[in-house]
Amino acid sequence: MAQFESDQNILNIQRYILIVVIATLAVSIILGYVKPLYEDYFSYAAVVLLIIAAPIRIIAVAKYFKKKGNRRYQMLSYTVILIIILTALVRAIL
Amino acid sequence: MGAVVAGIAGGFLGLGGGIVLVPFLTTIFGMPMHQAVALSLASIMAQSIVSSNNYMKKGMVDFRLVTPLCIFSSLGAILGSNIIEFIPGNYLKIIFAVALTYTAVTIVRKSESTREREAADPDPGLLAVSLIAFLAGIFSAILGVGGGIIVVPAVYLLFNYDMGTARGSSAFMIGITATAGSVVYLINGALHLDSAGPVIIGLIIGGWIGSWLGTRAKSIVVRYIFAVAMVYLATRMFLEGIK
To answer: How far is A63 from chain B (nearest CA, A)?
Structure first.
């Protein structure tokens, strides 16, 4: 089976994002029992964090390609962020 | 519990898990379809992170594949969602159901020894990946399915990647492509957050278990389970098509 190089930087970034999201969601669930009024704020924050995570992950991928000296794929990675924005805009407008 | 099961299925197969989660939320909890889809998309972003991390640790994610997949499947989805009204959806669903069944049979019948040889150093080229991703995006938007169910078999059968890398790369991609949809649902207020916490946590736990199993399972087992998922989807589509 072909094995591809994994980048520690991407792995760490994804791990940190996940820890923050899980912590936020855990607070949201606990608040659901204690003070239900504030529960949604934390759920909202977790979803926003997940949305922000996408460009952060892509920037990490772009840095991986930069490290490899692969400029074409580095630029393509940045294009992904533009495409996410474009897709969101198109769907919101239509 | 439903989210955990969806996460296991999604993490194992490199899919989003919406194939299990959306029917679960709509039938068991009586959640309206658009709310279930919105919540499913938001959860997929989290599940993608945990699944792709597990696949990455095993060297089963090819970023040269992921990057064009993200770009062109999103562009294809934009085009697909705009031409959907001009296309006879029912006929397309029936045709796609037949194609899915045929692909499932091909995946199961493909000789593993040949595959191992072919997968030694896959380099599909940017243009070929872009084209397939674009078509996958169009079809996923028209048919209302996630990109993973089209991308994984396409990458496996057309580009000679092994099943593990196909699923690992798909697991990374789905989280990125789900983001745009989640932004729109969040802005439009369709994302109801009352049940978001347990569902997302469930999908994270399931995604971790599924991808952990997925990185250790034998290719033949994965191929059979993937084929079953495809036949299930094909049956659902066929029934929708003949309605």
So the answer is: 12
Best interface-test mutation with B: which of A35, A38, A49, A80 has the largest number of B CBs within 10 A? A80
Residue A8 contacts B, CB cutoff 8 Å: no
The 10s digit of each residue's pLDDT in B30-77 is 777 777 777 888 888 888 898 888 888 888 888 888 888 888 888 887
Closest residue by Cα to residue B177 from B60, B4, B18: B18
**CA B34 → CA B159, B181, B220, B241, distances in Å?**
35, 12, 36, 20
Distance to chain B for A85, nearest Cα, Å: 7
Task: Write down the ipTM of this complex.
Answer: 0.86
For B216, how many CA atoms within 13 A lie in the half-sphere containing its CB?
6
Q: State how far the alpha carbon of A22 is from the alpha carbons of A45, B30, B84, in Å.
A: 11, 26, 37
How far is the C-alpha of B56 from the C-alpha of A13, rounded, in Å?
13
| pTM assigned to the model | 0.83
What is the model's pLDDT at position A6? 67
Dist. CA B75–CA A94, nearest whole Å: 15
Give CA–CA dist B120/B4, Å, rounded. 34
Retrieve residue B165's tokens: 């890398």
| Segment B128-182, tens digit of pLDDT | 888 888 888 887 777 666 677 788 888 888 887 888 888 888 888 888 888 877 7
Residues near A84 by beta carbon (within 8 Å), at least 6 away in sequence: A54, A55, B74, B176, B179, B180, B183
